Amino acid sequence: MPIDFRRAALAAAGDTEAKRANVLMQVAKQNVFFPEKTAKAITPLLLELSNEGVFSINKDLDALLDNNEPGLRSAAVALKVRSGAPLGALAQRDPQALLSAIASMSSDQTPESLPATLIDLAEAGQLDAGQAIVQADRLSDDKTALFERLAAMAEPAMDAGFDAWSDTHRLGMAALAGMHQTPDEDWPEGYDQYRIARAEQSVLELGKERYFHEEKGCVKCHGEHGEGTAGFPPLAMSPMVTGDPVRAATIVKYGLQGELLHTLNPADGKPFSAQMEPLSYYSNTEMAAALTYVRQSFGNFAAPITPKDVAAARPPAEGLMWDADLLLAKYPFERDRITGPLPPPTIDVQTWAPPSSGLALMLVVVGLGMLLILGGTYAGKFLHTPTPAH
Questions:
Q1: How far apart are CA 151 and CA 116, in angstroms?
Q2: Is 242:329 a contact under the CB 8 Å cutoff?
Q3: What whole-number distance in Å separates Cα of residue 200 and Cα of residue 232?
Q4: CB-CB contact of 64 with 46 (8 Å)
Q5: C-alpha–C-alpha distance, residues 355 and 361, integer Å
Q6: Residues near 380 by Cβ (< 8 Å), separated by ≥ 6?
Q7: Which of 35, 150, 172, 287 satisfies CB 3.0 to 4.6 Å to 157 for a cystine?
């Protein structure tokens, strides 16, 4: 069995947990030559400290909260959580370090109230809702209480169309994503209305590969985290992405031009007036996988898109790409919901309109008259056709 020299050295540093904890703290605070290597070596040892060791260095942990090494900051925050420090103050100081710290902890290292507190901080906007709720789900032993809380977050967005897109939808999607971290067999009863189909892992992997493809991938324009780039809209928390599957597929398959509503330019806060080229080099299966990956990444959470959805996409009546206004006339945002089936798309009134009742009646009368005339003509011909001579 190989010797763990780090633990051997630590054991020789003192005969109590408190002494060993203080040795680790001194190394963490004073080493300036190899900070990355130091952090990598002692972070797991810090996290393994008993409560006795943590309490002995609790006052000194503040010195690590501003350390340049993310690993050490995260370890310090984890130990502060174990010592009972208020999560709100830690979230205000370094929200990402807090989320990373909690991700490294097990349920027996955290207070029982932690899941509820994480959801509180997510609702208050102090923590990324998606990450916070995933951790709340992982650490929660009471799924019924958890689902009751998450359902209360999702409910306000259930009946709100995406034309009224707001933080309500962002929190609702985060709540749904948290619910779906729980395996189907562990879902409490009474929450089936919140179920959304999970994407198969193979589909997500294909979609991720296509999204990050070096030459043809979406990442070049839309960013590593779906945040958008200069001149190109974000995909994270975008109704264009998370709404009607066929509309999303239509954009990817046939392209889009014109002003993009509900898609703010992070540079100047104005709506985009951009152009997206059709991704004709991808198959229906590849487009569906890429869209599904985006719809279940970057804080988004919507049902997978299938090759059938992509096949249902139709080209514009004129031009090579869809105009945004025409596309949204056919697939308006007010139809979209975070759960439940969609109503059928609207019909473009520029290309088809139902006849008035008077005109409809006239057409019926004319049609019947034509049938009678034609019927009588052919019947007369049949009745008066002479019998061939034998």
A1: 13
A2: no
A3: 29
A4: no
A5: 9
A6: none
A7: 172
Distance CA 47, CA 35 (A): 17
CB 337 within 8 A of CB 278: no
User: How do residues 222-252 score in pLDDT, each as one tens digit?
Assistant: 999 999 888 788 999 999 999 999 999 999 9
φ, ψ of residue 227 to 5 degrees: the values are: -85, -10
Taking Cα atoms as reference points, which of 1, 67, 59 lies closest to residue 30?
67
Q: Which CATH number fits domain 201-335: 3.30.70.260, 3.20.20.140, 1.10.760.10, 3.30.365.10?
A: 1.10.760.10
> Is the pLDDT assigned to residue 330 strictly greater than 70?
yes
Q: How distant, in Å, are the alpha carbons of 44, 50, 362 from that of 342?
A: 49, 53, 35
Q: How many CA atoms lie within 13 A of 80 on its CB side?
A: 26
Long-range Cβ contacts of 193-198 (<8 Å, 24+ apart) = 193/339, 193/340, 194/151, 194/154, 194/339, 195/339, 196/301, 196/302, 196/303, 196/339, 197/303, 197/304, 198/304
Claim: this prediction has a pTM higher than 0.85? no
Kindly list the distances between the CA atom of residue 33 and the CA atoms of 28, 37, 235, 390, in Å, as whole numbers in the listed order. 11, 9, 41, 118
Positive or negative: CA dihedral 130, 132, 133, 139? positive
Burial of 4 (0-12, 13-18, 19+ CB in 10 A): exposed
